[in-house]
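S.,

As promised, the NAP run. Input:
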Amino acid sequence: MPHALRILILGGTTEARHLAEALAGESDVAPVLSLAGRTLAPQFPPIAFRIGGFGGIDGLIAYLRDAKTDLVIDATHPFAEQMSAHAEAACRATRIRLVLFSRPPWQAVEGDRWTEVESASAAAQALGEDPRQVFLTVGRQQLAAFEAAPAHDYLIRSIDPPQPRPRLPNHRLILARGPFSFDDEVDLMRREKIDVLVSKNSGGEATYAKIAAARSLGLPMVMMQPPHRADVPSFYDLESILAFIRARAHHAPPVPRGV
Ligand code: NAP
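Predicted complex:
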C-alpha cells in the first residue's frame, strides 16, 4: 500500500484555505496547513494545522525531515517573500518537491496607466521629483522605502498601524481592511485629490476596486510586481493544483522515505 502523500501547505491566504478544504477527507493525502500566527482569531481549517514560524531555514529543514514531508506547497501571499525564500532553500537542501499555488497577478487592461516596478524603492523613485498626492496601499512593511521620496503628500492605507510610524513629513493614515467597493474607492480618491496610486500587484478580488477606480478616474498607478519565481512550478487555479496533487498521491512511494 502506498503511504498517504504528506503535504505541507504554507498558508495565510484564501487560496491555501480553499486548498485545505478541497483536500479534507481525501484518503491518499496527509496535508498540514501552516499559518504564521499573525491573525488573532484565525479561521481553523478542516485539516491538520500548525501555527507559528519554523525558526528560519534550519527550523524548516528540521520540520520537513521530522514530518517526512513529501511535497511543499507555497500558498503564501505573493509578497510573503521571506517565507517563500525559506521554502525554496529548505526544499533544495532536503530535495523535497516545492510548488507554488497562488492567485494570478492582475493584468493591465485598456485604460490602465501602470508603471510596473520590481520593488518598493523603485516605486518611490517612480513617483518623480514634483510633489504629488499619493495614495499608498503597499502594506505597512514596505513604507520605509518611501522615506527616500519625502516631497510627496501620502495617504497611507493599511490594516494595522505601521510600527514604527514612517518618517514622512506629509502623511496621513487610514486603517481599513478590504474588500472595498468601487464607489467608495472612487469617492476616496476624488475627495483626497489623489494624483497617483501605488499598489502591490497582489491579484485577487478583495482589493481590485482601487485599480478599477484609478482607471475610471484616469489616474496613473505605480504597480509593484510580485517577485519572479521562475524555478518553482506555479499553479493558479484550484483544479490544476488538485490534479497535480492527485497524480503525485497516486505515485507516492510505497515505503516512507527517511529524509
Ligand atoms: P514573510 O515576511 O515572508 O515571513 C516572515 C516570517 O514569518 C517567516 O520567515 C516565517 O518565520 C513566518 N511565516 C510566514 N508565513 C508562514 C507560514 N505560512 N507558516 C509558518 N510561518 C510563517 O511573511 P509576511 O509577509 O509577514 O506574511 C505572514 C503571513 O501572512 C503569511 O502566511 C502570508 O501568506 C500572510 N499574508 C501576507 C501578506 C503580505 O502582503 N505580505 C498579505 C496577506 C497575508 P520563520 O522564519 O520563523 O519560519
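The radius of gyration is 21 Å. The chain is about 30% helix and 25% strand.

- D.
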